[in-house]
């Protein structure tokens, strides 16, 4: 009888420890970005509340980016440290119109439009909409000329970070982040 009680007590403690660890993880405000890998040949990837589809031609690439926010959404390609050296495309939809910018991570915690640091904005077009709390933006990037602040989207694996913020601006901090590995 004594042995049974000890076994049950031990099992109860183990179960409670498991729950505590799980809850702690779920409650994290700023979770470590999750890494998913896209299979070779994929043209769509998703992670958490984000998804990204792309169509590539000889001279451009068209992305359809979706995130669960009515504020801004973004992708950043191949940053080296936080945002440093990342090729960033950030945008939002306001009053039915999409706004999108080609930016660059100039410091680990700072990004600027390519046009402010001697580069060019290579976004040829963008359209988008908001629905059921999600924002979707389709934008085309010119690949025929790249400045030093743009990814060349070369063959091979690239690290893509998704980010989303709560406001229709290019400057408010993100509420969500996720990371994926992609072969464009
Ligand atoms: C729009 C304005 C943005 C602001 C004001 C901003 C601000 C910050 C700040 C203050 C941090 C420091 C860490 C923290 O407190 O969480 C950070 C980290 C980071 N940001 Fe941003 N950010 C912005 C946009 C972006 C964008 C567009 C991306 C990528 C698409 C991005 C990706 C990251 C990543 C990957 C980190 C590191 C997270 C970590 O190491 O845990 N940020 N950002």
Describe the structure.
This protein is mostly beta strands and 184 residues long. 14% of the residues lie in helices and 47% in strands. The chain has a seven-stranded mixed β-sheet, with no helix packed on it. Strands 2-3-4-10-9 form a five-stranded antiparallel β-sheet, with no helix packed on it. The longest helix has 25 residues. The structure holds protoporphyrin IX containing FE (HEM).
Mean of residue pLDDT? 84
Q: How are strands sequenced across the largest beta sheet?
A: 1-12-11-5-6-7-8
SS element count, helices:
1
The low-confidence runs, each spanning 5 or more residues with pLDDT under 50, are 4-33
What's the architecture, going by CATH?
Answer: Sandwich
| Secondary-structure-derived class | mainly beta
What is the β-strand count?
12
Q: SSE order, as H and E?
A: HEEEEEEEEEEEE
- What ligands can be seen in this structure? protoporphyrin IX containing FE
Estimated share of beta-strand residues: over 45%
**Rough outline:** globular
What number of structural domains do the residues give?
1
Give me the secondary-structure topology.
Blueprint: H1 2-26, E1 35-37, E2 44-47, E3 50-56, E4 60-67, E5 73-77, E6 87-94, E7 97-107, E8 110-113, E9 123-131, E10 134-142, E11 157-165, E12 174-183
Parallel strand pairs: 1-12
Antiparallel strand pairs: 2-3, 3-4, 4-10, 5-6, 5-11, 6-7, 7-8, 9-10, 11-12
Bound molecules: protoporphyrin IX containing FE (HEM).
């Amino acid at each position: 009888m004594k042995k049974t009680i000890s076994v049950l007590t031990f099992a109860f403690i183990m179960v409670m420890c498991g729950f505590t660890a799980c809850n702690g993880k779920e409650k994290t405000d700023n979770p470590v970005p999750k890494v998913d890998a896209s299979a070779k040949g994929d043209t769509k990837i998703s992670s958490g509340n984000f998804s990204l589809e792309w169509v590539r031609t000889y001279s451009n690439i068209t992305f359809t980016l979706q995130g669960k926010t009515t504020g801004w959404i973004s992708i950043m390609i191949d940053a080296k440290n936080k945002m440093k050296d990342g090729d960033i495309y950030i945008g939002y939809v306001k009053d039915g119109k999409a706004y999108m910018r080609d930016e660059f991570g100039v410091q680990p915690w700072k990004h600027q439009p390519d046009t402010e640091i001697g580069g060019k904005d290579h976004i040829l077009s963008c359209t988008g909409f908001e629905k059921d709390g999600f924002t979707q933006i389709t934008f085309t990037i010119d690949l025929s000329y790249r400045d030093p602040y743009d990814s060349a989207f070369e063959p091979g694996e690239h690290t893509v970070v998704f980010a989303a913020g709560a406001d229709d601006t290019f400057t408010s901090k993100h509420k969500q982040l996720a990371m994926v590995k992609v072969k464009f």
